[in-house]
Batch of 2 targets.
Target 1
Amino acid sequence: MPTPYRLCAIDLDDTLLGPDHKLSQRNAEAIQRVVEAGIVVLIASGRMYAASLPTALELHLDAPIICYNGAMVKHPFTGETWMEESVSPDAAGDLMDYCRQAGLQLNFYWHDLLYSAAYTSWLELYHKRTGAPLEVRSDFDTFLRGIAPTKLIIVDAPERIDQLLPEMRDRYGDQLDVTKSNKEYLEFLPPGANKGSALAFVADRYGISSAESIAFGDSWNDLPMLRWAGLSIAVGNAKPEVIAAVDRTVLSNAEDGVGIALEEIFGKG
């Protein structure tokens, strides 16, 4: 079935992947048919590159991965980094000090490795969900002092994250973009880094317009990408603010919503 769409960007956790954080056969087969039809399909995730790569390889996606919530764009087959931005060392150091004094779990991402001062219960939660490669260092504060990370995340209880969000936005102003990607994750990104700006960058490289693009997502950090795409789609388990902002809502990630939507848009082959 002919469609006006030439590019499709899909979030991973709670969107493409099921509640078990795995790729279903129906979603995989639907994506493969879309790729075979000549559509550019890419992953757009808050995850680090190393934690996004396995799904891209499983799907044989010959397209760059948008990772770190848009702070990095890297191709899984060529290894070429199309774009990468970093948090300033000063802002990163200030956040490290804040989290140490407040007893908060801070994930520090540098050179595609997750660093932490300890393997806390919050780090365990994150690690089990994403499989992110990590290194726990007792010299965390000194080893990473003066380093410009790709991004940082505070992981904590949802109510604590909700309390911290406005405080951190006030604290860092235009030094950092602060967003939630999950109810337990508060993300700190380079200014202007988000999935929407990264998707626009990738689409421009392909000569594809926003009107020719589809985006799938579920959470707050997906909103810039969903607003940019010509067709924005939320899975049924998406946050209420996301469902209110999109063109269309489909079945949940537990019900292969992405795959079924792709079948409806592009046909079953």
Target 2
Amino acid sequence: MSAQKDREESAIRYLLGGLSESERTSLEEKFFADDKEFEELEIAEGELVDRYVRRELSAADRRQFEQMLRSSPRLVDRVEFAGILARTVPSRVPAQDDLEPAPIPVANIKKNKDEKRSWWNLFGPTATSPAMQLAFMAPLVLLLLVSVALVLVWTRSRTQSERLAAEQQRLQQLETQIAEQKSKNDKLAADLTVSTQQKEEQEKLLADYEQQLEALRRQNSVSMFSFLLNPGSGTRGGGSGEKTVKIPSGTQNVELQLNVEDGNYSLYQASLQNIDHKLIGPQRRVRPVRKGGHRVIPFKVPGRLLPPGSYFVHVDGLSDSGQAEDFNDYPFRVTR
């Protein structure tokens, strides 16, 4: 039981971002390698929600949890539902003495007989005590609260659908703009009389559009699975072998974080290929970023393009003149 409690507390610290980099990486490998471990992560999330509702979190943990709520509508729904249950379910079961009717003064007996029956008597026999009346009315109150909760969830779902539709329209507009901008950029590259300054401005505008597109794709994604890949064979040499990755079922998007610590390029070009060197999807230009203590280029791939099998990502570095130079290959194997 103690080991189970320790795992649960570790999972809660992971959700609140309170683990070190090595501890977080170790837990992520367990979560995505074992379905049972992943279920324990979901249980820990439920326990974290309950502690927040019962106000059992520390001030620091509570602030961290509320920061998580601002970026997760799903977590907001869980907190609202947990709050409704906490207010509906009584904190203790009435004792036997509470269920016995209190003595009625003799002077009030005649008066009680002449009084009209209470409105709740229309639904059943007259309760003999406040505790019995509460026991009879509790299901009706629970039904009413559940109905209100369902209306709130439906309203939120409708608002979410409208927002997603607007974001999809914006996504299509950005894709059209990117296609037009790429066409203009190709024309500028072919025209040697265009100044270098104009070309750099067009490339900057194209990069801004791509960043907006990636931001919208992250908002529309239902689930994202991310993992780090070290280089294998390539011009740098000294790489690691094929890495086996277990992608959870139902994942819509996969982000490959390609380690380019040994590179000195400001822009890279990456392409996903299968074991037969067949290109899967378009080539992409990506700028390196710092993440998890590494200099990486984030390369996103739809999950449907990665059925079980062997793959590798070929990466070229782009020089200041725009010339592609062979950099490294990143092999990996996908299992489900």
